[in-house]
Amino acid sequence: MNWDIIQGKWKQMTGSVKEKWGELTDDELDQIDGNKEKLAGKLQEKYGWSKEEADNQIDDYFRDR
User: Which residues are in the CsbD-like domain (predicted)?
Assistant: First the structure.
């Protein structure tokens, strides 16, 4: 999915994103606001992933959305 679309629909998607990555708080999801780089950074911080792993997880998750 195109990230412009994700940014536009971010508020509607936060529930499913939180289901997938439950360690993200509502405040963090508000801060991310559909920004892929911010999401990747938070996933790295919360799960200890490399940038590449975070990007792969994000791409895999949003590919089918």
Answer: 4-54
